Amino acid sequence: MRAAFERSRAYIELDEKALKNNIAVLKELLPPGAELMPAVKANAYGHGNALVTRAMESAGIKAFCVACASEGKAMRENGIKGDILILGYTDPAQFEVLSRYDLIQTAVDFSHAEELNKYGKQLRVHIGIDTGMHRLGESAENIYRLKEMFFMENIRAEGALTHLCVSDSDAPCDIEFTNMQIKKFYDTIEVLKKEGCSIPKVHLQASYGLLNYSQLPTDYARVGIAVYGMKSARSDYDKLNTDDKLKPVLSLKVRISSVRAIKAGESVGYGLAFTAEHDMKIAALAIGYADGLPRALSGGAGKVLIDGKRAQIIGRVCMDQTMVDVTDIPGVSAGDIAIVIGKSGSDEIAAYEVAEDAGTITNEILSRLGERLARIMI
User: What's the pTM value of the predicted model, to 2 decimals?
Assistant: First the structure.
């Protein structure tokens, strides 16, 4: 009864076998002794943090990373035992959360480290080092500030990290920049160790860093989109050799709420944005932009799969409903299932295709999938 209720509107199905396959595939790329530290921020890239992290722990994952302290707190309350690294800024008002829930905080720069030190209790910290992205981390050039961060009384420095910002690109200039970042990071680590800093763990690779620059000497790889069996854009599938190994974990499905005939000249939806040029059959789907279906898919930009055939979105995507053209799909009825992301028959709509149609990347599409979508692990 519960499963029927969860599937009564729009919902996400998660393939646990695919998730564990991806973990195994990515582990094969790691050097000896290194571990995966999956990024499970933004509700595990829209997949559902609670379900995904429990499955990951059962597959042997012992470390995770998230964006903020509230995400780490929720994971602890969900029973997750492994290390949890906060990648982003945490305000001093939330330092008590770091301590109470045994979370590891990234020191995003020197001033943040000073704030962490002033808390008065020892906190677990990884030191962020900026090697060229200029987003977070103390500049690699500021060696003595970095050294001071490692020796602050109330900072228990357990590691250091940087982020490779163009490791997804095969452009020669971007490969050169990535190699510069890699060298700068390891050179900085070496200098800090010579200055007496203890640095138990180092890490710099996210998904593309691992896929394109595997076997770097590292302790963790902070894999995000890849562990979910996806890549950020269509073009990435031509560059990498894991396409046949990584399997998408997520499918997005939706109930058809009604089917009706309209005549030539009749219009559909808000603003009467679509007008039929001939007699048509249309279906309303129980999903909209409040669920994370981009409004940019309006006006024919997007499509769904019904019975293995593509149905184009017509009119404007509404907050809770979306209309599609089913004129050439026989037998469509209310209660049937349409596929927004996933397979139907011999066809498939990949998440990157939805992203492409909406003018964005896979990561954004997934991370904006709404809370009212039920998540079901199969």
Answer: 0.95
C-alpha 62/C-alpha 75 separation (Å) is 13
Q: What distance in Å separates the CA atoms of residue 134 and residue 163, rounded to the nearest whole number?
A: 10
Structure tokens at 333: 């009825």
Please say if 270 is a catalytic residue.
Answer: yes
Region for 206 from its dihedrals, namely left if φ exceeds 0, alpha if ψ lies in -120 to 50, beta otherwise: beta
Q: Pick from 242, 214, 235, 210: which is nearest to 224 by CA?
A: 210
| Catalytic member of 41, 201, 231, 303 | 41
CA distances from 46 to 50, 69, 186 (A): 11, 18, 33
Higher pLDDT, 238 or 95: 95
The string of pLDDT tens digits covering residues 356-366 is: 999 999 999 99
Catalytic residue among 27, 81, 270, 289: 270
Judge residue 204's burial from the number of C-beta atoms within 10 Å of its C-beta, 0-12 exposed, 13-18 middle, 19 or more buried: buried
Q: Which of 226, 186, 191 is nearest to 202 (CA)?
A: 186
The CA distance from 330 to 376, in Å, is 29
Range 328-352 average pLDDT? 97
Tens digit of each residue's pLDDT (9 = 90 or more) over 133-160:
999 999 999 999 999 999 999 999 999 9
Q: By the 8 A CB rule, do 261 and 279 touch? A: yes
Q: Which of 276, 269, 257 is nearest to 338 (CA)?
A: 257
Rounded to whole angstroms, how far apart are CA atoms 39 and 170? 23
Q: Answer yes or no: 41 catalytic.
A: yes
Residues 6 or more apart in contact with residue 261 via CB below 8 angstroms: 279, 280, 281, 282
